[in-house]
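Lecture notes, unit on protein representations.

Consider one protein chain, 404 amino acids long.
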Amino acid sequence: MAVALKPSESVDWSRKIDRRIYHDPEIYRTELDRIFRRSWIFAGLANELKQPGDFLTTTVGEEPVIVARDNKGQLQAFYNTCTHRAAMLTCEQRGNCPAFRCIYHGWTFNLEGRLTGVPYPDAYGEDFCKEDFDIPPVYVEEFAGLVFVALEPAVPSLADFLGEAKEHLEKYASGTEVLGRVRWRYPGNWKLWHENFGDNYHPEFVHKFVGAGYKGVDVTGSNHQLDDGHGIMLFPSQRQMPQIQAALSEVLGQEIDFKKNPLYALPPFPVDFGDKHAILTVFPTFDLQYFLGRIGTIIQVLHPEGPSSTIVELLALGYAGEPPEVRQWRLARSVDTQTSAGKISGDDDEAMRRVQGGVRARAVPISDMSRGQAPGKVGEKRDEYSLRSFYRGWHMYMGDGTLP
């Protein structure tokens, strides 16, 4: 029987992490039931589903889901499985079609998941009723142009679930569109990547480019707990362009001239350098990074494949109506930094691989997450308020909090 950890009253388990949660198969199975089936999980952007028949696929935990725009213009979501013999109706990540026809035996379902066609139905007998084989629906809602799905939501609506994260999603996600997507797999638990995204203690040590650029810099910013399970970091530009250019030249081992290298040049549009960077984490698997002055915005969503394997899906975002050179610049920047081979995420992959190996050392069963001792919900940039917020949400959903 799957079980959750039971924290004692004397220990704040948002600050002390039992390392079993990163590799124990039984705890992972409990997460699939209590967290992934009951949370709202990001699926994509609404403007990816503009026309009737547009669809995209995703997973909720390990369960396959289709999200589609029906012929009435409404969003529909249902399981990506044929009710006959279980074959997935589509393996495409996105596309357009008038209906879904199972490759195995030809059963056909409409854009609402209803069974509309069965080859040679007479052999099933007089009592056979197609309605009995409609695919069960999945909850689907949209907020700030973002589409989320839920199997058995623990709260009545997506807005209730997002809580204090709503205003930040409206600010940073509204009006965006997907320029490109990329996926990769890393050998680590899904929570580690989500933690790392909201951790600003590591960048100057893990990422050589960041560490070189921080020399002589007064690092400032704030780290916020958002209920329930969400968090955000806000910080101004820590470096000026000469420092960034010098740091990049040091890391690459050659002089980099931003004026001659379009990949590292300033963006081909005006930038408000008085703006702030934002790193927003939405429980349990949604991460958004906004670079000041709308230099760039990315979303990462996690798809677990077991206790020790995770697919990271990255969406590079732009804004409608931008010229091709701006879109290309945004894509190139995302590939150069945020993908598995990029200057940032490539380092994170290696760090997470090492953490996943280290959590199996039984003599050290606890990880510490107590950085930032000031009372309340706001700390310094390098503090761990947003991470502790995630683990308060984790314990709430796993059965140690107030959710029914």
